[in-house]
């Protein structure tokens, strides 16, 4: 269970959330809302990437080390543009002691992109790299921010196959909930305040 209590979140001068509370139960949750409603900011706060006030709890305990317990695939994470995809995958392996994600690379047909720099990746291939880096950690809580945006049909098929086989909890943020509803996700509308 992921619980947010009295969450206050600012992005510059904009108040994204003010005393916002939310409880997500079950293993598959989909947060839905229009562009600009705060979905990405919410996931970034849960992942420990941006400061907030209030309390975020995971499985009944305050979330104290989110970067160790959670993986996030999101455009909110800026990769150094000069690194290659292989460099990022190798760094991730060393940091989190994971195995080589050969199966993920194959599923997303990403092998031709491994030697390319982040700056030279297309939007779709950048999304694939985000997903590979997040899924390879196999965390208890996986956060996916608009995961199917910019993916081709084959990559979307691979994504939904990975989601259906994933043993941990997944929270997706999207403004296109139909595909996730078909995957037995509980839909929760994000109320922007």
Radius of gyration using CA atoms only: 16 Å
Described by strand count, sense and barrel closure, the largest sheet is:
5 strands, parallel
Average of pLDDT: 93
Q: How many angstroms does the end-to-end distance come to? A: 23 Å
Counted by DSSP, the helix tally is 7
Query: How would the global form be characterised?
Result: globular
Quantity of strands, as a count:
9
- Structural domains: how many: 1
In N-to-C order, the SSE pattern is EEEHEEHEHHHEHEHE
Which architecture name does CATH use? 3-Layer(aba) Sandwich
Lateral arrangement of strands in the main beta sheet: 6-7-8-3-9
SS class = alpha/beta
Low-confidence parts: none
Assign the CATH superfamily.
Answer: P-loop containing nucleotide triphosphate hydrolases
The CATH topology comes to Rossmann fold
Can you give the helix content as a percent range? 25-40%
CATH class: Alpha Beta
Beta-strand content bin: 25-35%
């Amino acid at each position: 269970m992921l619980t947010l209590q009295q969450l206050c979140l600012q992005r510059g001068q904009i108040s994204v959330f003010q005393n916002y509370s939310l409880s997500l139960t079950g293993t598959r949750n989909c947060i839905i809302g229009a562009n600009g409603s705060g979905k990405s900011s919410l996931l970034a706060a849960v992942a420990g990437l941006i400061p907030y006030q209030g309390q975020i709890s995971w499985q009944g305990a305050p979330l104290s080390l989110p970067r160790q317990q959670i993986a996030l695939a999101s455009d909110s994470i800026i990769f150094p543009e000069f690194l290659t995809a292989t460099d990022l995958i190798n760094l991730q392996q060393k940091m989190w002691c994971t195995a080589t994600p050969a199966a993920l690379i194959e599923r997303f047909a990403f092998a031709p992109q491994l030697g390319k720099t982040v700056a030279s990746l297309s939007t779709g291939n950048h999304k694939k790299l985000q997903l590979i880096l997040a899924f390879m950690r196999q965390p208890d809580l996986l956060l996916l921010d608009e995961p199917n945006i910019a993916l081709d049909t084959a990559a979307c098929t691979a994504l939904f196959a990975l989601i259906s086989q994933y043993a941990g909890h997944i929270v997706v943020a999207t403004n296109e909930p139909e595909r996730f509803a078909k995957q037995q996700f509980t839909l929760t509308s994000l109320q922007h305040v």
